[in-house]
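Sanity check

After download, print the first record. It should look like this:
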Amino acid sequence: MRINWNYLKFIFLFICITILYAFSNERNANREINGMKHEFVGEQNLFVNRDMVNKLLIQNYGSLKNVPKERVVLNTIEEVIQTDEMVKNAQVYLTVDGELKSKIEQRQPIGRVEGVSKFYLDKDGKSMPLSRIYSARVPIITGKITGKSLEDVYVILKYINEDDFLRKNVIGIHIEDEEKYQLKFRLESFVVQLGDVQDLEEKFNNFKAFYRKANRDKTLDDYLVVNLEFNNQVVCTKI
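Expected structure tokens:
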């Protein structure tokens, strides 16, 4: 009977690979977490810091250091981090050397409501609590705060944030009533009467044309109110 040595070599090699794979899997599963690292993506880590994230995880899991990797459920850790009201999204993963890493995206405020309740409006138009470690430099929203007026204010804030000139200069939005909004600028003493949120592009283009001319003529300080409510017009009230 002839022995097929090539066949036997193949079987032996297959057995060796299977044993090594099983050993490697078992060793990897038993490997412990040797540390944690948190990375804040996008905006700087202003509203949440590493200590706050670590404290949140300790409150829910205790110390994760030296815990076997097989006992760690990454999805649940992501959900725990996202319970922080300052966090928009979190991704958690384990490195090959046993380090637990997270990438955390914070919520981004675009306006601050100063009413009976004080909170931010974030980039998605949702309310966001104030932070105890950082105060964002965003336009202050005052006046008659209602659900409808905040929806309109969010539309105005979105437009402002997409315009470099407005983003740098608008520091406040006052709600006189629903569909009657005023803007306050950083350096100028006049109030901009915006009206409703219809035709914002046209209104702001008219305003910037007025601003360029008045700035060139050095007459910006002469005005008390700049009204943009009228079709394709800028109506000014002098001091």
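If your output differs, re-run the checksum step. Summary of this record's structure: Helices lie at 5-30, 50-61, 74-81, 147-161, 164-169, 200-217.
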